[in-house]
Amino acid sequence: MPSNMSLFSVNAILILSTDDRSRILTKYYSAPHAPPGATDQPGANPYPSVKEQKAFEKGLLEKTNKQTSDVILYDGRVVVFKMEGDVMLYVVGGAEENEIMLFGVVLALRDALAILLKNSTDKRTLIENYDLLSLTVDEIIDDGIILETDPVVVSSRVSKPPTQDIASVKNIDLSEQGLLNAWEFGKLKLAERMRQL
Q1: Which uninterrupted H or E stretch holds 144?
Q2: Which of 10, 68, 81, 109 has the fewest CB atoms within 10 Å, counting from its CB?
Q3: Strand partners, 84
Q4: Contacts of 127 (CB under 8 A, 6+ apart)
Q5: Pairing of strands 12-17, 87-94
Q6: CA-based nearest residue to 89, from 150, 160, 140
């Protein structure tokens, strides 16, 4: 059991293409209180440069390409992954992290994307809907801290606009008379402000 108790548990979340080994989305996290530049601390980012990240990702793709299991120990890190179509979804944690918790994160990501993209989780669809992909990852993980693992909750947060904004949009009159009224109201308020100065 680590002596340093922290909510920080995810070092990286990676979504990589298996066809051309390209990056679709990669996010590396560092613990909020780790000393800068330290790579041997628990929670410190061991891959600070893009070159090191790409080397890690290349090796990870090669190792997991023919794996039948969903959890491996690679480069001193616990890596859980799922293959969906022509993409691989990875969640990377420290060697001391709970594999079941990390596996819950990768399942939440997979299932939330399946709900949002109507079971069409492939490279082309993910790139076309990159905004939903990025928001989904941000709803599940924030700076390496797991926030939510229920895919229904995550997909509802990503896909619905706030309800208080919808009510105000319905009351806007966009006819010619409505726009003239808005113009007159603006002129009136501006004149009042000018008189106050």
Answers
A1: none
A2: 68
A3: 87
A4: 24
A5: antiparallel
A6: 140
- Collapsing DSSP to helix, strand or coil, 80 comes out as strand
Is 11 in contact with 45 (CB distance < 8 Å)?
yes
Beta pairing partners, 83? 88
Q: Which pLDDT belongs to residue 172?
A: 66
Closest CA to 88 of 141, 9, 13: 13
Q: Which tokens go with 180?
A: 């003239």
77 closest CA partner among 5, 11, 3, 8: 11
Q: Please state the φ and ψ torsions of residue 173, each to the nearest 5 degrees.
A: -95, 110
Q: Residue 197: count other Cβ atoms within 10 Å of its Cβ.
A: 4
Full-model pTM: 0.74
Using DSSP's 3-state secondary structure scheme, residue 192 falls into helix
Tokens 């780790």, located at residue: 34
Cβ partners under 8 Å of residue 13, min gap 6? 25, 26, 27, 90, 91, 92, 105, 109, 137, 141
* C-beta of residue 13 within 8 angstroms of C-beta of residue 109: yes
- pLDDT score at 118: 87
Q: What percent of the chain has pLDDT over 90?
A: 41
